[in-house]
């Protein structure tokens, strides 16, 4: 998931536990500024799967190779990951409102420019700018909703998760519908919707309290990777994301050319719905019964098996579609459990831990799509890329199991280090 959506989502579960308490959520009784940010969140999360249904159409209309077209994911995810290293530094200095508006503004501009492009190289470049805007917006949105919501943080968290699920599920469907008109349709649609969100936040979101800001060091996310638990999770997530984005980005090319953008949109709507349901409901049910590392050791091999089955039966569209949707169930669980683990692995500020983890894991997401296309070009097989994705997820499993001792704190088995040490890494003057 291509944007820091699950990082923020995952952190909510423990945040709710700390702050929600016995408060009864009043999810529909929110200030206007909360609805403005929530609406923008839905649109931002739609961007994860929006491009999927139009990948073959872009390749055809812009006379691009499959590898070139898959770079639409790579440029977006790579820049998102790199930008995550500086988002906490920026937002801690200019405030959440300014960070949100800059992020939204960049998405509007670069989505519109992508739609107006006449070459695949230009679209790839503008998707990179979109990734920068997405990183700035998503990294700040949850904190803004929690800070402005009424009814306690539990109500805010439910609202955020609802926006997350709705965006992930609807994105491919909107992409398919607008992509049926022209490949530029989804890009124009995002630009218009984000422009509306920009206006809504400008009008409805109040100014930040400058006195409450705690400046974060520029070097903090990189220094955070010295923590063995955080580093272990980041490396595992890198290999896991190769499997994730093989399933997401390669499947549109593996399916028959008779699949229209709308057909692909409906397929990935099912995928997004599975991700949303398992992320919000199945993951908490699982972690209530077993340790987080055990949950990862169960779900990762199941995802690997799903990818291998997809490779074996890649020539049978019905089986491949089922694998995509079933894979979504495991992806939702894994995204949530991995990110909750990140939030518990260290006493660093959550924005810092999130930035470190996201920067590393997005490298896997950036590698996978063009790698899959290159493997197919070299082997002539549409199924082998799925095997590679499955093996990569198995590597992630091995990393978790081999480094389980470094994850003792994730399972609640170790005393946390002194908070002052974490503060020394995370806060203070720019380094």
UniProtKB/TrEMBL annotation:
InterPro entries given in the database record: MFS, MFS_dom, MFS_trans_sf, Tet-R_TetA/multi-R_MdtG-like, YfmO-like
Span list, region Disordered: 1-23
Subcellular location(s) of the protein: Cell membrane
Topology relative to the membrane: Multi-pass membrane protein
One Gene Ontology term of the molecular function aspect: transmembrane transporter activity
Gene3D superfamilies: MFS general substrate transporter like domains
Sequence intervals crossing the membrane: 34-59, 71-91, 98-116, 128-150, 157-181, 187-207, 228-248, 268-288, 295-313, 319-338, 359-378, 384-402
Any single Gene Ontology cellular-component annotation: plasma membrane
UniProt domain Major facilitator superfamily (MFS) profile: residue ranges: 33-408
Name of this protein: MFS transporter
Species in which this protein is naturally found: Schumannella soli
